[in-house]
């Protein structure tokens, strides 16, 4: 395989140094192993007016264009990076033996240019495969494939449509994550599309029915979704009547039993779980659950 120059750059060397030198802390990749959105450690090998070339352990150095060096505008490459700098980069594209990288997570994906016209006839209850392209404080942008097959179009999933109860967008999704979305609205005039990751009619429900439920009371819940830091569970209070509206509560990662690092290790959609109330926030209309045994 290709002898990486990461170690040489890190110690201030160059390509003429000891050919047998191996940098113990780095991984090597072939271009075929890399995936869009993948995070890699690298070292800046050289800078130009139009960007920086970074060694990530692949058979070619990758280019970070000046436009992808940071979230904001960059006037000079040297303002951000210099030769031999260690950097974290993300894979944008692998094409014709070339590697395109980004140092901004929100600039991994290019602009989605497909027309929105083809999305007008899609019903709001139809689920579509999407991929998160950008995460901001007000929501997440998701690209979905055009029904006409002419590339991708991008829509916004507002914060309120990412999870119920609402959470910070970065707690629910990450850039490059694959998600299921529904179309709420297509505005051809403004060239905008509103999306949702929630079921139609999904809501938090009413906390009143849980007012007298003690923290030692075990209730039946149904897993309805996942975030990076837990799971969403529909729960009904003890003694509920047929037709009662379930409450969409949150089960934090630390409250899942047995303990795990990823909610989907121990849980799956529609799984029935025994839960107890951990915290009730009436002001924000939130219910937090736990699966932990009472002795834990």
UniProtKB/TrEMBL annotation:
Residues 1-22 are annotated as: Disordered. InterPro entries: NA-bd_OB-fold (IPR012340), Ribos_protein_bS1-like (IPR050437), S1_domain (IPR003029). Residues 37-104, 125-198, 216-292 form the S1 motif domain. SMART domains: S1 (SM00316). It comes from the Eukaryota. One of its GO terms (biological process) is translation. GO terms for molecular function: mRNA binding; structural constituent of ribosome. Pfam families: S1. PANTHER family: 30S RIBOSOMAL PROTEIN S1. This is S1 motif domain-containing protein.
């Amino acid at each position: 395989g290709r002898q990486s120059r990461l170690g040489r750059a890190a110690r201030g060397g160059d390509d003429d140094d000891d050919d047998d030198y191996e940098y113990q802390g780095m991984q090597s990749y072939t271009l075929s192993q890399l995936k869009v959105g993948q995070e890699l450690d690298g070292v800046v090998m050289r800078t130009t007016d139009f960007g920086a070339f970074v060694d990530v352990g692949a058979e070619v150095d990758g280019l970070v264009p000046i436009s992808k060096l940071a979230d904001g505008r960059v006037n000079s490459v040297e303002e951000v990076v210099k030769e031999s700098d260690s950097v974290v980069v993300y894979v944008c594209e692998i094409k014709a033996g070339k590697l395109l990288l980004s140092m901004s997570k929100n600039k991994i994906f290019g602009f989605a240019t497909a027309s929105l016209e083809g999305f007008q006839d899609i019903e709001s209850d139809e689920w579509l495969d999407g991929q998160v392209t950008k995460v901001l404080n007000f929501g997440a942008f998701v690209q979905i494939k055009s029904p006409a097959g002419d590339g991708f179009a991008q829509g916004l999933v507002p914060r309120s449509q990412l999870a119920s109860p609402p959470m910070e967008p970065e707690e629910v999704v990450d850039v490059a994550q694959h998600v299921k979305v529904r179309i709420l609205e297509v505005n051809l005039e403004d060239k905008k599309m509103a999306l949702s990751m929630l079921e139609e009619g999904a809501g938090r429900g009413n906390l009143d029915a849980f007012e007298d439920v003690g923290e030692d009371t075990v209730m039946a819940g149904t897993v309805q979704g996942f975030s990076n830091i837990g799971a969403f569970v529909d729960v009904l209070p003890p003694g509920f009547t047929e037709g009662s509206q379930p409450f969409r509560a949150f089960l934090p990662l630390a409250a899942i039993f047995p303990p795990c690092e990823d909610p989907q290790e121990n849980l799956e959609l529609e799984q029935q779980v025994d839960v107890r109330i951990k915290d009730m926030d009436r002001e924000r209309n939130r219910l937090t659950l736990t699966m932990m045994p009472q002795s834990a």
